[in-house]
Amino acid sequence: MRRIALSSLVISAVLAASGPASADPAPVVIELFTSQGCSSCPPADELVKHLAERQDVLPLAFHVDYWDYIGWADIFADPAYTDRQRGYAHVGGRNMIYTPQMIIMGREDVVGADVMEVSEALSAYIGQKPKVQLTTGRSEEQLTVSAPALPDGMSGQFRVQLVRYMPLERVEIKRGELAGNTVDYANIVESLEVLADWTGAEPLEVTATFVGDLPAAVLVQEWPFGPIFAAARVE
């Protein structure tokens, strides 16, 4: 227990050095590719749990399925999330994928368990204004997403995505590399839905069905698998 507590203190101290928490509604998006079958992943999962406490950071845990063969099938895994990680690798010119990997704002590839590296990468994005002024709203079971047309020269191919996630789940792992461990997982991606493809030449106006109590966020990303230009939590 003492070792776990010390680890938490170290994580908190290092992340605090990455910049003060901001009231900016456009958080820095961190995608963690992780697995319950990966013995190297718990430190990264713990890091996501701490990052989830910040308002200026939006960590999202994408559980991949390629470690399931070891003996424990990750209960949150989805082949689509493995495909997403492969998409980032292809665009980034990387010939392999791994866990735990973090992709920051669709741009930077860092080792998810390396607190110092993650903190340094975060410091480059905290407090930056988004390139897309994204607005979201909810009314009963409907979600609206809007943004003004982009300035001349910024138009391109963008994908507007809705991500739903579970804030926290505790899992007892009974087989595989982490057999006998109980792990807390935070901001577990439950679904990822494409709302629209957008060029930015015209204002964005999207309406979608929004049912249930799971928290959510909207991402505007250069496509395929490029930089995330804006993100907004769905309140």
Q: Secondary structure elements and their pairing?
A:
Blueprint (H helix, E strand, L loop, with lengths): L1 H15 L11 E7 L7 H10 L5 E7 L15 H14 L8 E4 L3 E4 L3 H9 L11 E5 L2 E6 L10 E15 L9 E17 L5 E6 L6 E7 L5 E7 L1
Parallel strand pairs: 1-2
Antiparallel strand pairs: 1-3, 3-4, 5-6, 6-9, 7-8, 7-10, 10-11
Structure description:
- α1 packs across α2.
- The longest helix has 15 residues.
- 37% of the residues are buried.
- The protein has 235 residues and is an alpha+beta fold.
- The chain has four helices and eleven strands, in the order αβαβαββαβββββββ.
- It has a four-stranded mixed beta sheet, sandwiched between helices.
- The termini are far apart.
Mean pLDDT: 90
Summing up helix and strand content along with how strands pair, one would put the structural category as alpha+beta
The end-to-end distance, rounded to whole angstroms, is: 36 Å
Q: What percentage of residues falls in helices of 4 or more residues? A: 10-25%
Number of strands: 11
Oligomer: single chain
Shape: globular
Number of helices: 4
User: How are the strands of the biggest sheet laid out side by side?
Assistant: 2-1-3-4
